[in-house]
Design a protein that fits this description.
By secondary structure, the chain is α/β, with parallel strands linked by helices. It folds into two domains: 65 residues; 200 residues, 3-Layer(aba) Sandwich (Rossmann fold). It is 44% helix and 16% strand. The protein contains seven helices and seven strands. A seven-stranded mixed β-sheet has the order 3-2-1-4-5-7-6, with helices on both faces. The longest helix is centred in the N-terminal third of the chain and has 60 residues. It starts with 7 loop residues before the first helix and ends in a 6-residue tail after the last strand.
Length: 283
């Protein structure tokens, strides 16, 4: 139809109708185009993720199991609670560790025991025993040790302020404690919580009583106040310990802990020292 012969009002109305139809058609085409584009992108992403899981998942399964924490627990638990005062069941160590005689390194407060596992892999001739008060972490650590195949590593659920005597008695005489580490224990910074710290006068005295002569006790933390407290507590027993005042720039075990590495990476300070039991402490 030739709109040039139409009146002006009809011309405008006809042009508006044509414009509206064309605009609606363009909009529909744009919507269809973008819908197809997004559908294609989504399908490609889903396909890529599926292929990535199939290719990479099996390769990383063991590594993920051994390094990625799978249990979430409270960072601190009250060691004075009644549930942590009950006796514990101790295993037959000859059925767990390699045949005696052998030296045992005792790690007090081993958490997930990842550090203990690294040490056990590096030193197969030494037995490594960790004691952790949070039971879910112990269960997780034992599962990982089983997967990794570490016959010289084990973790116990226990409270060292309560079960020290029983643990040491269960090891002897087949196994001898050759060293002890107290690395980054819970600081319990509030004044009313200081009594919850694993290092106290009673523990220090009991530890010296059950250890062989000249056994090194390695102490390390990134909390200065806690470090000074622990040093003072050990030094309050000069008849039981010899303090090694030599400067220690590296971890006494020859391998940094995960906590230690994280603090150093943030330019933080690590405080270390070593105490040795005196020969006269062995009953």
């Amino acid at each position: 139809m030739n709109i040039s012969v139409l009146p002006s009002s009809l011309k405008l109305k006809h042009c508006y109708i044509i414009f509206s139809v064309n605009t609606r058609f363009i909009r529909i085409r744009c919507l269809l185009y973008w819908f197809a584009h997004f559908f294609k992108v989504i399908m490609l992403r889903l396909l890529f993720r599926r292929r990535h899981r199939c290719l990479v998942g099996p390769l990383n399964a063991a590594a993920s199991f051994s390094t990625k924490p799978s249990v979430r627990v409270r960072q601190h638990v009250n060691p004075l609670a009644q549930r942590y005062q009950e006796p514990i069941t101790l295993p037959d160590w000859t059925a767990i560790f390699p045949p005696p005689p052998a030296k045992v390194h005792l790690d007090i407060g081993c958490a997930r025991a990842q550090y203990l596992m690294k040490l056990a892999a590096i030193h197969p001739d030494t037995c490594f025993l960790g004691v952790e008060i949070r039971e879910p972490l112990v269960v997780e650590a034992l599962e990982r040790m089983k997967v990794l195949g570490l016959p010289n590593a084990h973790v116990l659920h226990g409270n060292m302020n309560v079960h020290l005597d029983a643990i040491v008695a269960s090891l002897t005489p087949e196994y001898t404690i050759g060293s002890v580490s107290i690395f980054h224990p819970d600081p319990w910074m509030k004044k009313r919580h200081v009594k919850r710290r694993v290092v106290n006068d009673a523990f220090v005295a009991d530890l010296a009583r059950v250890l062989p002569p000249s056994t090194p006790v390695f102490v390390q933390t990134d909390v200065r106040d806690l470090f000074e407290y622990m040093v003072e507590t050990f030094q309050d027993h000069p008849d039981l310990y010899i303090h090694d005042n030599a400067s220690q720039d590296t971890n006494a075990m020859g391998l940094p802990t995960d906590r230690e590495s994280a603090v150093v990476a943030e330019c933080g300070d690590i405080y270390r020292t070593t105490f040795r039991t005196k020969a006269s402490t062995l009953a």
